[in-house]
Amino acid sequence: MKEEIRVMKYKLLVLLLFNISLCYSQTLAIDYKFELADDKDEYGFSGFGIVRLITDSSKSISYVKVTDTIVSFKNIGETIQKASEFDFSDPAEYKDLASNEYYSRTIFPKYLLKDNTYMVAWTITENYKEILGYKCQQAVGHYRGRDYTLYFTTAIPIQSGPKRFDGLPGLILEITSNEGAIHYKAIKIQKSNEVIENPFNKLNLLYINWDQFINAYKDYFKRITNYVPEQDTAIIIPKRGVEVFINDNNE
Amino acid sequence: MNNFYCFIIIFCTSFNLKAQTIKGTVFHENEPVPFASVIIRKSDNLSSIYQFTKTNNEGFYQIDLKEPLDSIWIEVNSLAFESQIKHLSSIQKNKQAIILNFNLENKPTELEEVVIEKEVPIRIKNDTITYNPESFRDGTERVVEDLLKKLPGIKVEENGEIKFKGKSIKKFLLDGDDLFSSQYTTGSKNLSVEMVEKVQAIENFNENPMLKGLVNAEDVAINIQLKKGKTDLSGDASLSYGIQDRYNASVTGLLINKKTKGFLTTTYNNIGNNYSPYDFSSEIISLSQTNEKEEQAKTLISQGGFYSQLENKYHRINSNFNSELNLLYKFSSKITAKTNLGIYDDRLIRTNKSYTEYSINDEQFVINEIEDIIKKPRLYNANVQLSNKVNDRFIWEYIGKANYQEIDFDSNSLNNEVVQKNKVKTTKFFVKQDFNFTNRIDENSAVTGIVFYSNNRAPQEFTLTPGLNIEENTTNEVISNNQYSRFDKETFKTKGEYYRSFNKVKLKLIAGYLSINNTLNSNLKANYTDGTVYTDRLYQNSMNYKYRLPNVALSLSYIKKQKYAFGILLNNQYYDIALNDEIRNLNREEEKFVFSPIMKFQYVLNTKSNLVATYSYNEIVPSEENLFEGFVLTGFRSFRNNSPNISFLNTHTYNLNYIYNDVFKVTRFSLSFNHTNRNNNYFSRNTINLDNTFTNLFLLKAGNRDYSLNLDFERYMHFIRTTLQINGSYALSFDKNIVNNSNLRDVETRLLFINGVLRTSFKSKFYIENNFSYSHNDFLLDNRSQNQFSSFNDTFKIIYKIGSDFKTNVATNFVSPDLSKNNTYLFLDSELRYTPQNKRFQYALIMRNLTNNKKFETVSISDYSKTIASHNLLERYILGSVSFRF
User: Fold this and answer.
1) Of B217, B144, B226, B242, which Cα lies nearest the Cα of B186?
2) What GO MF annotations does this protein's record show (chain B) (predicted)?
3) pLDDT in tens, B407-447
4) Prediction ipTM score
5) What is the pLDDT of residue A247?
6) Which of B48, B59, B117 has the CB atom closest to A124's CB atom?
7) What is the pLDDT of residues B363-381, one digit of tens each?
8) Mind telling me how many Å the CA of A22 is from chain B's nearest CA?
9) A74 CA to chain B: closest CA distance, Å?
């Protein structure tokens, strides 16, 4: 009996290996238009452009391009952004959907981010909306400092989305933070032939997790805030990105 | 069997004793499907997702239900396969985990390369704004002009002139090619809107692309991107016929291929439409006239007043045939030839009535006029253009044009109690030759040259029966008058320009020579019943007015990007003028050096707004129509002459303009203040009595000035798909005149005008547009108000989409020409359109002027008179129309 089981295990293993090499998943490329404008106080930030998410059911990779923008905000002043094109040799982020791991660069040149604590238990509501011809259902939740309203569609059963938004039974097509600072919206969906793989592993840099990143950022913020290059001059760096790094009580 | 259960045990995870666990494997043709979505829905709420998970790399899933349930629905989705839903009913509690496997099937059809892209209505890239026509159309647009009127930022004037951001467009391109040259209304009024893929409005446009970088490109242009069809030739034909014998027929053809671009249009209509670049209703200056204003010979004899406050479609009673061919052929990548040929034939009918009360110098009297007019213009036009781009640095171009017009004017007039017949025959012949070249010497400099010659003559013959007596102290009866008047104008121009750019400074040096020769020959005869003819040199002209003008100009401009810009043009002209009057044997000559500067300063306040200030000073020579001394009979009761004086007219012009432009929010606001101050000017001396009006223009060293404030606002609100446009102006003008031997009177005119348009392009069943205008005129004499009146009109249009094929629209136009009177007009138009699915045919039922307004009465005032005038309108008609696209 035991021997039979062992043999069976090996047969299954071979079968499994065979399965993995076959590619069932179809790959899609989704373009999202993003408008980020956090002007709550002078430690906010802004960004305008397009993020291209190339994903299949098990992994995603994204590229970002920004648009020519000159915006004048009340609190964060004037921000100028010069247009750039997609740089397919420099992806912005990679996600392993099977293990819910998010990889990206950080502002610290020697460190890469490997974040596996970003998962949010989104609450699916009964509200619906149509985006790009798909019927989307609403989900709400709180993610690292902001409350969000998301719209996903089960018609595209890929449990992914831009940035660290995923974990819903369908592709996320729109993300809006309730106070209005974060907005991502899908504008184009097409098939893709790209083979997705983790671009950061080969960089031979150290990985840090989210908690380590936050601690390092807080140190950096304290250093910069105390640095006064000239009299009456101060350098201001943001306290928040999509995620809140440092909250209002400076924690 | 045993092994199978072992397999399950290996991958087993813990299960909840209270609520059920559902697990299984998702297969496709015996292969596991990884990362498929598994969604649980409760039976009492099928639309809501209760719980969800996904299969792992081995195709296995497991869900622990949050609460014990009796029945659930489980849905499995995977992008590559068909979704599957299974129903689990009567689930027993405390059972072992429920195993539910799925075997997915192939999707019935392969996903085609589906690109779902949300088409944005407006895309802005650098200097080009691209409009997506589908977002702005309401479905009633037939030609490109109808669509352009709906695009925010673009305005189409009554004569067809297209303006973008307040500036007139320099070019109307089709897929980048300039097929129509300056007569682009042929394209905008006839090209079907179904051919348009996108409309691009280009700013910072360089009319001469070879001068790129050397001039500050401030022009604007429109480029129509055409739909790429399967064939080179496309077009449409339409025929409409209605009660009272109304016709509207048109055939247009568009030919596009690598070497050729051609556009042919032939139209006939008698419902008041004008599809051509010409306009013979006197008051509207057509596009073709605007471009050749300087070279055209003047005509003194009136050919009917066709002015109306209403739109052409209500009052223009015509019978118009127009055919135009525009052809562009690229012989090679260097040589392009273009030709435009046109024939225009029309018959315009109108009855004008006017009742004028004069109060001049304590004298009051009334003049009553009625005129029944038939005006038949015929026009033949031919343009030829050849351009040769010899190499990347040198291009030359030749343009030749010939234009022949014949206008037959007939009218029966009533002047108080005198009944007369008027007959005017005008023939115009215009020839133009233009040769120009551009040589781009190097990156920083270029040279252009132009040689231009034009010749225009416009003889007119006017017969008035019975005639007016022009001889003093005679009792002879005048059977008829013959007034002959002919202006000839010959223009020769040559100019060389040198461009040089140094970093931020751009320099332009101009040297030119202009020679203009005007002649006027006119004489007025009175034919008596006994066969004799009387004429006098008082009523004759043999005038020659010519001037030669060499000039040298220097232009400098400096731009500090995003900050400010400064430009100055110093023009030095040397005038050599001669005016000869052979009848009165008077010769006047003048030589003068004139220095005219133009300065422009622009300051950028922020990325969205800037301030522009301009100042110019100019001395201009008088126009030839203000220099003839002999009387000319210009109508059945009007005479015209001048007290000639070849002094220069000095004008100072000031302008201050604030412009706010938010490109992302499509909001535009402009406020401008203008002031023109003339040190001397022509003033009119009018002598009006019951039978005749004599107008004499004379030059006076008295001032004449005007001020005006203009406001322009436009905003497109995408969330409610609404465009709002408001423009208003307030103008003050200080002038002088002499009426009936009065002293020189100070006349002040105040004019307030407000216009607002609201347009929604919501993709729902309704489309609404409302356009209102209000104007208030005030005439003051010696600071006391003499005459004033206000008028108001409002057009409301609503379009309703009945089904997918039917559209109906109703438009009402409410006009109150004089707000102090109860005399108001309501016009009602309606249309029903049917477009079957294949879109090749379209059927329409058009109803115009349903309230059957037969005549329109308006009021106009001056500082010494008040006129109640009326003219007839196109009566109510219903048209049935069929259009076919190929």
Assistant:
1) B144
2) carboxypeptidase activity
3) 999 999 999 989 999 999 999 999 999 999 999 998 889 99
4) 0.73
5) 83
6) B48
7) 888 999 999 999 999 999 9
8) 9
9) 15
Which CATH number does the domain housing residue B114 bear? Answer: 2.60.40.10
> Minimal Cα–Cα distance from A123 to chain B, Å?
10
Test A159 with B111 for CB contact under 8 angstroms: no
Residue A22 has pLDDT above 60, yes or no: no
Q: From the CA of A250, how many Å to the nearest CA of chain B?
A: 35
Within a domain: B819: yes
- SS3 helix, strand, coil % of chain B, rounded to 5? 5, 65, 30
Q: Which residues of B touch A123 (CB under 8 A)?
A: none
How is residue A43 annotated by DSSP?
A: T
Task: Give yes or no for a contact between B65 and B100, defined as CB atoms under 8 angstroms apart.
Answer: no
Asked if the structure places residue B443 within a domain, the reply is: yes
Residues from chain A that touch B609, judged by Cβ atoms under 8 A, are none
Show residues of chain A in contact with B34, CB under 8 Å.
19, 24-25, 57-58, 98
Residue in B with minimal Cα distance to A124:
B49
Task: Quote the pLDDT of residue B5.
Answer: 45
pLDDT for res A12 = 35
Q: Is B585 on the interface with A (CB under 8 A)?
A: no
Q: What pLDDT is attached to residue B761? A: 60
Task: Give the model confidence (pLDDT) of B35-49 as tens digits.
Answer: 888 988 887 777 778
Instruction: Give the closest of B48, B79, B115 to A190, CB-based.
Output: B115
Choose among B250, B215, B414: nearest CA to B320: B250
- Give the domain CATH number at B340: 2.40.170.20
Which residues of chain A make contact with B78, given a CB cutoff of 8 A?
Answer: 24, 57, 157
Which of B118, B150, B171 is where one domain is finished?
A: B118
The pair of structure tokens assigned to B435 is 């040769």
B74 touches A: beta carbon within 8 Å: no
Predicted confidence (pLDDT) at residue B699 exceeds the cutoff of 50: yes
What is the maximum alpha-carbon separation in chain B?
139
Return the closest-CA partner of residue B247 out of B881, B831, B828.
B881
User: How many CA atoms does the CB half-sphere of B681 hold within 13 Å?
Assistant: 18
In a domain, B430, yes or no: yes
In the structure encoding, which two tokens stand for residue B620, read together? 């201009």
Q: How far apart are CA B499 and CA B470, in angstroms?
A: 59
Taking a C-beta distance cutoff of 8 angstroms, is the pair B497, B510 a contact? yes
* pLDDT band at residue B87 under the 50/70/90 scheme: confident
> For chain B, what is the domain count?
2
Question: Which of B118, B139, B170 lies at the terminal end of a domain, its last residue?
Answer: B118
B281 inside domain? yes
Contact (Cβ atoms closer than 8 angstroms) between residue B487 and residue B299: yes
Candidates A19, A21, A72, A191, partner chain B, best to mutate (most B CBs within 10 A): A19
> How far apart, in whole angstroms, are the C-alpha atoms of residue B521 and residue B457?
11
- Full domain range(s) for residue B292: 260-885
The average pLDDT across B634-654 equals 91
Q: What is the pLDDT of residue B285?
A: 63
Both tokens assigned to B581:
């009057």
Say how far apart CA B565 and CA B582 lie, in whole Å. Answer: 52
Question: Binning pLDDT at 50, 70 and 90, where does residue A8 land?
Answer: very low
- CB-based contact A1 B37, cutoff 8 Å: no
Q: Whole-structure pTM over 0.80, yes or no?
A: no
Residue A23 has pLDDT above 60, yes or no: no
pLDDT at A14: 36
The Cα–Cα gap between B272 and B248 comes to: 10
Q: What b/e string do you get for B511-544 counting C-beta neighbours within 10 Å, with b at 16 or more? A: ebebbbbbbbbbbbbbbbeeeeebeeeebbbbbb
Please judge whether B607 and A97 are an interchain contact, meaning their C-beta atoms are less than 8 angstroms apart: no
A25·B80 Cβ contact <8 A: yes
pLDDT per residue as tens digits for the range B707-730: 999 999 988 776 777 778 899 999
